[in-house]
C-alpha cells in the first residue's frame, strides 16, 4: 500500500465524523496486547508534541493505544491510514478542527498523520491552541532531524523498537535461559511475526521499507541496486564496511551515492552503523563502520546468512540491547578490538566484548580486547557477554565479568 498524493478531493464533514466514531468504537473493542516496557517511559503530555518513532510494524500504534487507554481515555483518536481518509488533504484540516471542537477533548492522538502534506503546520497550530498532542508514524517521515525545523523544537521524540528480550519472554511465557535466548536470536521481536510465525510477514516488511520508505520517498530509480545493497548488509551484520568498498562491490557511480543509500537505510531504522571510537570526529568518519540490523528475525528471514553465523547475529542481538539504552556506541580498535564502548560526556560508561562461546582458542583475544579498552579509558571493570558462561577474569589490574546473555539483556 503506497501513498503518492498529488491531488485532493475534499472529504465531507459527515464522513470524517463517521470515521472518528467508528475508529473510537473499534478501539474500545481492541485487545491492548502485551504492555510495552516503553509505556512507563512516556512523559505526561504538556506543551510539547510526543512523537513516537521507530521501524514499521514494531508496535507504535499499539503503544499509542495503550497510552490512550491508560492515561487519556477521552482523547480524540484518528488513524490517517484508514482507507476512508485517502482523499484527506490539507484543506480538510478545517473540518478536522470542527470534529475536535465537537468532541470536547483537548488531547489528540494522530496515527500516521505524516502521509498528509502540511501536517507539521497543523500540529504546531494545535500546540499553540493548547491541545495535547501524540503522533506516531513510519520513521521515514517522522525523523527527529527533520522535526527541529517543522515544529521548531516543540516536540519530544521517543523511539520504539521490536520486542526486547524481556518482552519476548513475557509474550512467549518463557524463562530467562539459554533456550529462550536462542529462540529470541532466531525469531527476533516483531510482534506480528511472533504471533503468526509466517516468514512472509518479514519479507514484506523488508520490501515495504526499501520501496515505500526509501525508494519512493527519495526518488531512487535504481531500486535493484538498493535491494542488493540492503540484502548484502543484512547478510553481513557485525562486519566492517566502507563506502569505497561498497561502491566497488556494487559498481555504484560514486561513494557519495553509497553514503546516501546508507543514510536512508539508517534513518528508516532498518540498519544501524557503529563508528570506531576516536576523539577526532574526522577519524570517526574516515574509519570503517560496523553494520547491525534492527532485528535478528529480520536477518534470518531476509538475508543469505546461515546457522554458522550465530556469532555475528549474537553480537547484533547485544548491540540492539545496548542501542535501546544508549545512543553513543562505538567499537574500539587499537592493537586489539573491543566490540562496544559506551560513552557519555567523553567518559566510558561500559566496555562490552561479545563472544558466543569462550574457549582456549579465543579467550586471550577476547580478554585482551576489553582490557585494552579499559586501559585506554582508565576504567577498572568490563564485560564479556557469552551465550551461557559465567566467570571472573583478571588481567593487568582489570576485572572482566563473563556473563550469560540471558542475564545481561533481560533488563533495560
UniProtKB/TrEMBL annotation:
Record-annotated AAA domain positions: 49-169
SUPFAM superfamilies assigned to the protein according to its UniProt record, in alphabetical order: P-loop containing nucleoside triphosphate hydrolases
Any Pfam family matching the protein: AAA_14
Superkingdom assignment: Bacteria
Domain DUF4143 stretches: 212-355
InterPro entries in UniProt: AAA_14 (IPR041682), DUF4143 (IPR025420), P-loop_NTPase (IPR027417)
Protein name: AAA+ ATPase domain-containing protein
